[in-house]
Specification:
The complex is a heterotrimer of chains A (361), B (375) and C (575). Chain B has 375 residues and is mainly alpha-helical. Helix content of chain B is 68%, strand content 1%. Chain B has 15 helices and two strands. Chain B is globular, with a radius of gyration of 28 Å. Chain C is an alpha+beta fold and 575 residues long. In chain C, strand 8 and strand 9 form a beta hairpin. Chain A: Keywords: Cell membrane, Membrane, Transmembrane, Transmembrane helix, Transport.
Chain lengths: 361, 375, 575
Amino acid sequence: MRHIWQSIKSLWRSKWGFKTALLYLALLLLLALVLPLLPLPYAPNYLDLRHPFLSPFTAAAMASGHPLGTDGLGRDLLANVLYGARTAFLISLPVMLGATLIGVALGTMAGYFGNGGLKQPLHRVMCWALGVPALLYYGLYLPLNFSKWDLGYRHAMLSMVLLLGLLILLWLVSTGLKRWFPYWRKAVALPVDKAVMRLTETLTSIPRFVLILVLASFIPPSLPLLVLLLVFTLWPATARLARAEMLRIRQLPYFEAAQSIGNRPARLIWRHALPNLAGPVLIAFTFGLGGLLALESSLSFLNIGVPATLVSWGRTISSIRSNTAAWWLVVFPGGMLSLTVLALYTCSYYLSQVFSSKSSL
Amino acid sequence: MVVYLLRRMLLAIPTLWLLGTLVFLLSRMLPGSFGEERFLNPEASFYSQSSQGSREAAFIEYRQRTGQHLPLFYFSFPPVSQPNPHPEAAEEQPSPSSYSYLLPQFTWNGTSNQYHRWLSGILTGDFSTSYRTGQPVLEMIWNSIGNTFWLLLAAMVVTLALALELSILMAKKRMQWLRRLLLPSLFVVDSIPMLVLALLLLVLLANPDFLQLFPVYGMGYYVSESLSIWQAMGQRIQFMALPLLALVLVNLPYITNQVYSSLKASLQAAYTRTARAKGLPEHLVIRRHALRNALLPLITIVSDFFPALVSGSILVETIYAIPGIGRLLIESVLARDYPVLVAIILLVLVVRIVAYALADTAYAWADPRIKRKLA
Amino acid sequence: MRKINVALTCFFLLLFTFCSQPERAPEEVRVRMAVEPETLSPVSYSNAGALQIINLLFHSLLSADLGTNEIMPYLAKDMPTVVRNDSTTLFTYEIREEAEWTNGSPVTAEDVAFTLKVAKAPLLNNESLKPQLEFIQDIRMDAANPRRFTFVCSGYAPEMELLTGDFFILPAYLYDPENLLQHIEVANLNGDLSELENDEKLKAFAAKFNSPDYGRNPKLLQGSGGYTLENWENGQYLTLTRKKDWWGNNTSNTQHLTAIPQRVSFQVIPDMTTAVLALKNRQLDVLEGIPAAEFEQLKQQDSFLKDYALHTPDAYEFTYAGINTRRPKFADKRTRQAIAHLLGIESVIKVSQQNYATPTVGPIPPSVTDFYNTSLRPYTFDPEKATELLKAAGWVKENGGWHKHINGKKEQLTIEVIYRAGSHSYENAASILQQNADQVGIPVQVLGVESSLLASKSRQHDFDLFFRSLGGNPFAFNFKPLLHSNYAKEGGLNYTGFGTPESDRILDRISSTVTSREEQARLLKRLQEIMYEEAAFISMYYTKERVAIHRRFANAKISGLKPNYDVSAFTLKED
């Protein structure tokens, strides 16, 4: 770890590109954090209905306090561009982080265990196989229904109590089976790799907007839904990458050595595999983030419910469709978007160099 | 090798069946169903064209005629019936069934269900007909897949060729300036959302106010006399230029980046050093030795390219008015035309599975070390 | 370097070929179509584009003439004669003598009877037409005149006259050459039809008729209209050509029966931005529904105006806000009036329609002057008035929100606005309401939902407030299914739950016993007053259509009725 930190420091000193990019990102992050405290003349969602489609830097725009102009509803472009950065950081970043975490976790597991690596005694497999559906039904499905009918907490509590009872019963039964029936002690190999691969294939084959529509039938279109869905559809890419890398790393001599001295799988993955994975994952992360920053512009094009109040660069950009002459709606947020993405790529480019030089050691 | 490929395909069949079932059931979870809006909520107008009752009757008749009244699956899991809207009232009169909702109830439907019909239809080669047009699903997909396929194939070939050439150029020592220029600009292109890119190309290159180089939309006009092959092709290229450009620009940055980094890695490898030591000129070192090894990761990229593009071409097809599979998909989802919807998703799945299998085989073919492992 | 040179030469050669735009035949009219028709079957068509095309291929007995905005006899010789009996009404028509099918055989009453059978029989793909013709019980042929017949209809409603003529007549010789439906009587096609479902001949006909051929095959889509389908290129375009010698050319005194352009081609362009660009490129001749902002832009461009004429007819489509009166918090009409004062209709018109709309007080279009109630003023944004009304309705402002005790529970006044996702004008209206209500202290949540979800939410009365549009026409004003409280049950079309005893009485009168236009005007004006007062179904504005038509065409018959122009009437101007 110290080695990486040192190379980053030397990068900072020697490469001005890295320095500018990092500074820009830090500034943007700072801006996103302190933005609500800044004295902006207009809130991003304030509709100045007297001044729709103001072009920027004109006399009218300056006089009304919209230096960058307004969109079709008179929303101030300056405020929207700045708050869009906030959304980019507060939504896109966590989404991508979540997707990367899930993807790396599942991908490394699939790559490490393969189809025969993870062995579990039969009784525990049964315990999980029965417990998860029960958890879903009593822990998720019923309470969701109750909240839809406004039934109050009594029924939800009842179902939770039932769930707890069932889980305890299941645990008791499985320990009993383990103790008295040797058959249930037999270890079976779980096809982790196959399961993860099939899951990624399915998820990437079903178009995202179909998934959104299916999910929208349970939950109304809202920010949490959007976040959930994006995480849900973005992790497979990272998972595939992590799995491929894990397969490669597993063959490397140093890893085999670490394995042979009896390290536990968790430690093996954490200490020996993950640092080696970081480079490619980082590239995937930045590319994913870049795509994510403007994704909702495409989503709203397909008539998919992105909350209309969500301030984002994508929303402003896609409003060009109602008036193709309003170039400023694309240029300013699009410029910010490109700059941010460029900064991200520059950072990841140099960082991946750091990682690749380390792994070749 | 062929045996391996065949085995891979055979093994894919159960997966396909499982996923197909999943997609079939999942698609029915979309809110609303086909015809609901059409028959029950006709364009509400100033005068009643028909009574609500007769419309409902017609809707039921329609569902019966098309078999949509049947239960979905072999067993159904009815939605939890609402126990009692007023729990206070329930406490006064405790009814024995008020907690029955805590146990899931299953009903057995037998073989007369929609899934059974659909599956047995597929096994006999009948993918049923579209609810919207009444045409056989396969025919509809066949009609629109051609356009998408040629577009995607052309986009892939152009993108790969460009990516290869660009990375070879960038890998040369004296082309440092090109790399400095090209990589950031590729990143910038990558950051432009596809929607904006497609619209931008339209506004810039097919607009009399700016540059009018290409036709705006479609795939050609109606001409009464038949064209020769060359003329038809010329027309086709002319109309396909913009969508092709959009697809290439969208995919170029990522692929170029990947090719370039793997090319760079193989330039540092021992065999390249040997080749260089032999005194080969730089461009021959790159083309003969480094490139061949750098192409391996390309297999994965290409295998990902095709399936992902099907959903990626939705935007391009809508904006440039190309009747392709993406547009068919979006239309059938919005109308809840389940037979078409499920068939398209299954098709994408098949393409994906085949592409992955081919990629594995290609790896084995290219790298004997992997071949041994597969055998 | 040599390679680069070759590449450059190729590129410029390609560019050169691209720049040469294909020559266009001037007598061809090119029209944009947003969605490809699913089928052109005159019985089961499902969208407006298909209707526009079928109108060129087939005829109904009566139809609206876009030149005059009046109902005119098309296939019929005159308007029907109406005889009202106790429980039935008789409409007697006579078909034009000249009218003939593509093969030259005359259109007769037998064809009308055949059409009715197709529309009413079981097993056939006719479910969208069937409910509409349920009221026609029987058809009586005139023994002396093969073109004369009488519809026997149950009951009476003012719009029946229009409805008896409002379906396409099919050629029996082409659709049923084996006479499979001959043995079935129209009178037997009412009520329970389960016996007929086993009829072998009907089954044979159904197998044929339900095939997609009957909605796609140019050989089968041959009606009495002046055009035939020439070519249907999947997902790209449909072209129609004029029949060589069409009977309509020989009829006298019929300005509305026309087939003038040699060829009409409908281009499928789903995206509006693309369509506008295609129009600017002169690739289209006609484009309707141009977005307001783009329309303003086009108006400024002289080079464009030299080639295209822009029209803004008053459309018969209006946007309204519906408030769910069943929700206890909206039960008081003063609360609803307060919300109506927060809609900011004038801003919505300015911002999202660029003033291409007319505010309205009720569902009657302001352009229909004798029915429109001019004594009412459309709701305008007025926060003081809204506050006053809220206070009067018993709401108390505390902690920045409005609260009230309803059924013993303290409730806060909040509004959840739903609209069809992707529609900009609704989204704008919702945002404006949100901002206006926020000034008064009512939190508003804005939700764009997918259209079928919106439909099911409206049907199940699971909403606070929605924005929707309604299309209409200037002929019939029977709002009973939309506004009568009998239709307010779950599943009925009266989503808002509007209805007072008086409005119900008025709606009943209008739909049955009104005799004179004066009385109808009086009733409709009173209805507008009640609706204005109740503020459950708040009509906001009537839009103006925005159409561009190439200047080489004259006689476009611009109208507020869909599709806003009559392409069959376009004549080439002589230079």
